[in-house]
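Sample pair:
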Amino acid sequence: MQPPSRSRYFDAANIVVIVFALAAWAAPGGKEKKSSASTIRWAEGKPGCTFTRDEDGKYRYGLQSDDVGITLAVDSQELQRSRRHFGRFIGAVLAFRYTGPNQLDVRNDHIKLEFTSHSHVVQKALDPDDFSAQYQYDVDALIHEKEREIKKHPEKKQEIETTLQAYQKELLDMQEFLRTRSLRTVRLDRATPETKGWVFFSTNNKWIGDWKKREDFVLRISLANRLFEFPFTLPPVEGDLILRRRGEN
């Protein structure tokens, strides 16, 4: 009987290596480790947590934990306003205050919103510059589409042009708003302890349909080794409406 060929030994060795590799991959130690960040969650009545209904028409949720204070402000009519935009998105204002001795990085891309009432879809905060460029692209695409429609239906020219003018104005207003009022990545320290700005989240998702009478959300903010969570409902109480005074949005 002839001994096995050398190639068979190599085949057997390769099989053993593959089996061990698969076993190592499937072992618990091979899985991605869970984040060790501590979670600080807003809850009504909990120490360090506040809630106000303010005259500017916004609900404000405050959360203080050691050297970090965060305030989430959401317009009481944000659900209604979000459906009047050309683009589909929802916005909120975040304010940060850091009183620690070191530094704290606040990053727009470390903020997420969970649409609890819509299959728990999670959307990252939109980058202001990318959002502005996408808005421009979408409006330009609509203009080209409508120009073709005018050629086919010249009798609708005035009606279509009026609509397009409104979208172009909204585009310019939105781009200016994003440029001047968005939350930007910043490093907080003793010299610069505070920052504030708007964050926006796309609602253009197949699992996010029409708004319900009351919508549940969870806003999450990752800061260093801490995860801040703001569960909130719009409106907090069914039928709630804030009579606002004129002022800054």
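Confidence is low (pLDDT under 50) at residues 1-33.
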